[in-house]
Automatic annotation (TrEMBL):
The chain crosses the membrane at residues 51-84, 91-114, 120-138, 158-180, 211-230, 251-276, 291-310. The keyword Nucleotidyltransferase does not apply. This is Autoinducer 2 import system permease protein LsrD. It is a multi-pass membrane protein. It comes from the Bacteria. It comes from Chloroflexus islandicus. GO terms for cellular component: plasma membrane.
Length: 337
């Protein structure tokens, strides 16, 4: 009973309560919210973001951050579009786009893992640089006219009412959950995020793991960019611009510490549901995109602020408890003497 109560009072319990509240309000204000088509559409409109949020969870728990994921998504989408526009078969264009994502991740990972530069600075530079390359490739054009089989990947149901991208997300979420929570690699991610110096002295190859995580981040972001191109049916130089805000918010709101070492995919999964339902409800109520972005920005601030305030309060309470115990011990000692 105590374990159940502790779970309900945890961050995940709070997210679950918020999710139920948001869903109830949405259902009351917009009857179309509860339809199956709307629930699938809820995921499909942000499927690329939530796919990247999975690998971002690993990055942040490891004590790093990757601000360049949205730019890698846009670059991969632009590479697919430009190559196809120049007569390259779509299959090879997808392969080249995924390889470009791997190279972007390796670029970030090398400077962070082996040179020791802060990931915030490196990936911020990558965010600007990769986006610049994407804009150079496309310029002011919009490239579309992709093959029917390609656009069907992002737009048409594959199994029942479920599209390919949603099925892929379910598979990737299951794989990420197993790796992070139940494998040796996942334990190393937590250990390095908690204290990289201790992990290094313990014989763990910290640079190798960090490089691997950034390469995975680049690959997954490129995959998400390809799926985005398939869903939209056309690509511009600003494709996926600003997606990093939602992605990082999903991870931090899920209880993953911005300082690394703590968090889990269960919380991130609940956070994804909260943000998707919140955005969907606002869309059904015709709330503008700028207001929706502002709401997500506020959630990002609260997701960083509230856990730190709670930690400060917990540490203060523990210090006072220790002080009271010391005073009580002193009084008992003086009485006995």
């Amino acid at each position: 009973m105590k374990a159940k109560l502790r779970r309900l009072l945890s961050w995940e319990g709070l997210l679950l309560a918020i999710l139920v509240l948001v869903a109830a309000v949405n259902a009351n204000l917009a009857p179309a919210y509860v339809s199956l088509n709307n629930q699938i559409n809820l995921f499909q409109l942000s499927i690329e973001k939530i796919i990247v949020a999975l690998v971002m969870t690993f990055i942040i728990i490891n004590g790093e951050i990757d601000l360049s994921v949205a730019s890698v998504m846009g670059l991969a989408a632009c590479i697919v579009a430009v190559l196809f526009d120049r007569g390259v078969p779509m299959e090879w264009a997808i392969v080249v786009a995924l390889l470009a994502g791997v190279l972007c991740g390796a670029f970030n990972g090398f400077w962070v893992a082996y040179v020791g530069l802060p990931s915030l600075a490196v990936t911020l530079a990558g965010m600007i640089g990769f986006r610049g390359v994407a804009r150079i490739l496309i310029e002011d054009r919009s490239i579309g006219g992709f093959p029917a089989w390609f656009t069907a990947l992002g737009q048409q149901p594959l199994i029942g009412p479920f599209p390919f991208s949603l099925i892929l997300f379910a598979l990737l979420f299951t794989l990420a959950l197993i790796v992070l929570q139940y494998s040796g690699v996942g334990r190393l991610v937590y250990v390095i995020g908690h204290n990289a110096a201790v992990a290094r002295y313990s014989g763990i190859d910290v640079p190798r793991l960090k490089l691997g995580l950034f390469i995975a981040s680049g690959l997954v972001a490129a995959l998400a960019g390809v799926l985005l191109a398939a869903r939209l049916g056309a690509v511009r130089g600003n494709t996926a611009d600003g997606f990093e805000l939602d992605i990082i918010t999903m991870v931090l709101l899920g209880g993953v510490s911005i300082f690394g070492g703590t968090g889990n995919l269960a919380g991130v999964g609940l956070s994804i549901l909260v943000i998707l339902n919140l955005r969907n409800g606002m869309s059904l109520l015709n709330v503008t995109g700028n207001v929706q972005t502002g709401v997500v920005g506020m959630l990002l601030i609260l997701s960083v602020l509230l856990p730190n305030l709670a930690q400060m309060a917990r540490e203060r309470w523990q210090r006072r408890a220790v002080q009271r115990k010391e005073v009580q011990t002193g009084v008992e000692t003086s009485v006995s003497s």
